[in-house]
Amino acid sequence: MERLPDLADLTHAEKDALIHLLWDWVTALRQEVVRLTAEVTRLQGEVAHLRGQMAKNSRNSSIPSSAEGLKKTKSMRKQGSRPPGGQPGHSGSTLKQVAQPDHVVDHPLPEVCDVCGESLTGQATTEIRQVFDLPPVTMEVTEHRIHALRCTCGKLHRSEFPPEVTAPVQYGPGVKAQAVYLTQHHMLPVARTANVLADLYGVPISTGTVQAMIGEASERLAPTVARIADAVAQADVAGADESGFRVAGKLNWLHTAVTDTLTWLGLHAKRGKAAFEDFGLLYRLKGTLVHDGWASYRELTCTHALCNAHHLRELTFVHEECGQAWAKRMIDLLVSAHHETVAAHGQPLTALRIQAIRTHYEAILAEAAAANPEKPASGRRGRTAQSVPFNLYRRLRDHADDVLRFTTDPRVPFSNNLAEQAIRMPKVKHKIAGCFRTTEGAQAFCIIRSYLATLQKQHFDLFQSLIQVFKGNTPQPNFSG
Q1: Which residues does the UniProt record annotate as the domain Transposase IS66 central (predicted)?
Q2: CA within 20 to 30 Å of 406's CA: 35, 110, 354, 387, which one?
């Protein structure tokens, strides 16, 4: 910067010029301060956002625990609320001796004493130990023969093969059921399933044959799964969820709709409205749908209930990472209300108690509103970005009835865990396989998994049920649940 001249030596015109120059400098500096202040504010917001993203985990957000690697996070469950081991009422599976063993091996005493040499006489006591093991398993081949004989009158008489025996050599329902059971329920890859069958039973089976068995099961079960979808659509309360699913190298979406006793899964290239329309299930639902609040579910005309497990995680983030005390009070209120509904054993809470919960809820929301004023419109297109605490507060405020639906309707669960659980095992299958190579294979998985998950909820023997499926006698679940 140039050295300023002595003011006493300047003329009036030079003094005026100097004043204008200084004014221009001050104006420029003010503008730079305003720009830098705005830049600092923006960067502080970015830093806060990034810190929030880094702080998110399966405990305080919707990030799945599988995405956290080896990082250990603190459970939301209170210590001592569910101690390790079998829970009260659990029947257990302890090995017990049986009255009629398949084989008995006697280990006789010596004839004489090894100390004195006298003969051992008298009544011996007996101690029993039993060993449970699997017998050697080998392939069993059943040969079917038909016969032909021509009568003296000229007519040829010919016996017939059973309807299920269609080829000179083929696998029976037990092998088919085993292949489907391992791949679709226990999530083994097709190649490993073929190896297991070869190693355990000496079954020389190819991956293509296993795939064909899966396709046959899907075709046989499709009508039953269609009935499951109809039954879910008619339920008083259902849960829905969706998750990304890679098929043939492209992103697809796995959709689920469930009740306490029914599970339905479907695959679609789209996540929202287009999938709902093609499936038709959710559009037919007239009861209450439990979901995570995603916008596409909001367009459905049914009654809504929001998953409070999501809210507890988000409230934990707002309390622990943003330092807002109202979030902890909301957690305590929701958890306490949930315990009340559980203790009511399916009976509705009293109107007075429901009103007390709602009053407390609205008082906490008032605290949240004071702590999180809405940012004014920025003048840019679209909605102004708001903070994480404000967005959560707004959802809890705008959809309070749906958040507290579990307090007013005892049929409605506190969370959407049933639907999330239905997604979990297919995601395990997806992670093991990387992706499904064909759309047909993924759709077959959805059909078979819908059937098996439903039967599991209703305590069917899955393996024996699959054997009956391949025999043409598909066991039907209870559709009224």
Answers
A1: 169-444
A2: 387
Q: What is the mean pLDDT of residues 151-175?
A: 93
Residue 194 has pLDDT above 60, yes or no: yes
The structure tokens listed for 247 are 């098929």
Q: Could you identify the residue written with the tokens 């819908």?
A: 450
**Which tens digit of pLDDT belongs to each residue from 418-463?**
999 999 988 888 888 767 889 999 999 999 999 999 999 999 999 9
Q: What is the signed CA dihedral for 444, 448, 451, 454, rounded to 10 degrees? A: -110
The closest of 239, 283, 227 to 477, measured between CA atoms, is 227
CB atoms closer than 10 angstroms to residue 349: 19
315 CB neighbour count, 10 Å cutoff: 25
Residue with tokens 């004489």: 112
Q: Tell me if residue 401 falls in helix, strand or coil.
A: helix
Give pTM, 2 decimals. Answer: 0.80
Q: How far apart are CA 369 and CA 391, in angstroms?
A: 11
DSSP for 269-324 reads: S-SSHHHHHHH-HHHH--SEEEE---HHHHTSSSEEEE-HHHHHHHHHHHHHTT--
What token pair was written down for 126?
């007996």
What separation in angstroms does the CA of 392 have from each of 6, 20, 416, 450? 63, 52, 18, 34
Residue with tokens 């339920």: 235
What pLDDT, in 10s, does the model give residues 320-368?
Answer: 988 999 999 999 999 999 999 999 999 999 999 999 999 999 999 999 9
Distances (CA, A) of 47 to 13, 67, 315, 375: 51, 23, 20, 18
Q: What is the CA radius of gyration of the chain?
A: 35
Residues with Cβ within 8 Å of 231's Cβ and at least 6 positions away in sequence, in order, are: 259, 262, 479, 480, 481
The C-alpha angle 324, 328, 334, rounded to 5 degrees, equals 140
Cβ contact 416:291 at 8 Å: yes
Element (H, E) at 157: strand 156-158
CA 286 to chain centre: 24
Asked whether 178 and 197 are in contact (CB, 8 A), the reply is: yes
